[in-house]
Design brief:
The chain is mainly α and about 210 residues long. It has one domain (about 1-210): Serine Threonine Protein Phosphatase 5, Tetratricopeptide repeat, CATH 1.25.40.10. It contains 10 helices and no strands. Helix 8 packs parallel to helix 10.
Amino acid sequence: MKKLIFVVFLLLFTQGAISGTMDERVSEIEGNWADVREAAVTADRKNIFLQLAEDITDVVVAFPSQAEPLILKSAILLTMAEDASSFVALGLVNEAKDLLQKAIGINPEASQGSALVTLGVLYYKVPSWPVAFGDNREAEAYLLKALEVNPEGIDSNYYYAEFLLEQGKKEQAVSFLNRAIDAKIDSNDRTFKMKIKEQEKARIALANLS
């Protein structure tokens, strides 16, 4: 089930104008998460992510009305799920889902709609009931909302294209793959390397359609 559930899709954000204290704390944790996420797997990886999860939980508690800490915590939990057993992983995924839904309830446009994208991806990647909550209709609804929030984003376009490809809708996917490929990436974005990889996946997917 692990391979069915997880893809490299963890979606982070460019910080907006929030409280300076929260911004600094979230930025530091996000940077640490991105560094460990991209580094080679080590024996300490699990403990590092556990500490990051504790750190971001403190921020969530301190800033309960902000969506960004919830989004980052969900990303950390989903990363932890990649290395966990199927049973533990499903629990982490369900917790991440709840955090994302809460973040969307606070501000669906936070982090350029990344909570909408991530939740959409979860809905089409996890198994359906009774194993989990997978639902293609819910997936498409969230992904389309993400496109409304961020129509030119790499994440919003690439993952909707991936969803369409999994539904066998190849012709419809082409335009969204092209938008993902053409999207600009801020070199100062702490998830720059991840976004480059997403663009490369979009290029490969488009080439495979030729």
